[in-house]
Design brief:
By secondary structure, the chain is mostly helical. The protein contains 11 helices and no strands.
Length: 257
């Protein structure tokens, strides 16, 4: 079927080829001649023939159809490329820790030992110690105060990109205020939640508001903050579990009576 249509559309009769060249020269001279030429062309052409303009339009339609079908193809590739690039960002961020000075890296990792050791020791022994939990909250308050005052040391030098204005100096006092409030709570869970909020504020200051910090320092701050937050939440969880166990033991003891 397709060869028949192609033969009718693109192969005109020999009589049509003879009449096309001389008659087209008369188009500008006489409009009636052109109309008669059009009638004769319609008679001589195959009934299934079409104008050349239609073939050009069909070519354009196929091109547009190709462009239309190519758009979803690229949309499907975009998420795959993003998924392949995402692990690379994490890998480069962790590799940037190699550029950090050894004293800064070792001291920062050493400061995380009390955060990890306190909830880990209570979880291994299966016993909640209120004294250790309070020591954990106190050490976290000291660390948060240090992170807040560190911004003063960054803004005070003359060549520092951060100016010692109200914004930089006043914001550095917010984490110590949260730390002091955490020590005033009698409940360890409330103190842990307050310290988590203070750590989040300090991390936002160091990562977002001060972009001139080196990359290794920002990665170190993110890793350290995650460890401190999870350790504080673990201590609060151990306290909640111990309270639930104590309440269950009391109910059993009362039921036996």
């Amino acid at each position: 079927m397709f060869p028949l249509i192609q033969r009718c559309c693109f192969h005109t009769p020999f009589k049509l080829q003879k009449l096309t060249a001389p008659k087209l020269l008369l188009y500008g001279k006489n409009k009636t001649t052109c109309s008669s030429l059009g009638l004769r062309l319609q008679r001589d052409m195959c009934p299934l023939s079409r104008s050349p303009h239609l073939s050009i339009a069909s070519v354009y339609a196929t091109k547009l159809q190709g462009l239309h079908t190519s758009v979803p193809f690229f949309k499907k590739k975009a998420p795959r490329e993003y998924e392949m690039k995402a692990p690379g960002v994490l890998k480069r961020s962790m590799e940037s820790l190699k550029d950090s000075p050894k004293p800064a890296l070792y001291l920062s990792l050493g400061a995380l030992i009390p955060f990890v050791s306190i909830p880990l020791s209570m979880a291994i022994q299966g016993t909640y110690y209120p004294e250790l939990a309070f020591a954990h909250i106190m050490y976290g308050a000291v660390t948060v105060s240090f992170l807040g005052g560190m911004r003063w040391g960054f803004a005070l030098p003359e060549n520092s990109p951060a100016k010692p204005d109200w914004l930089n100096l006043a914001n550095s006092t917010i984490p110590p205020i949260f730390a002091c409030q955490a020590l005033l709570f009698k409940d360890v869970t409330q103190g842990a939640v307050m310290l988590v909020m203070a750590l989040g504020i300090a991390l936002h200051y160091d990562v977002s508001l001060l972009p001139t910090y080196p990359r290794w320092f920002k990665v170190l701050r993110v890793v350290g903050t995650l460890v401190m937050v999870f350790s504080l939440l673990a201590t609060a969880l151990l306290k909640t579990i111990s309270e639930i166990e104590q309440s269950n033991s009391r109910n059993e003891w009362q039921s036996r009576k």
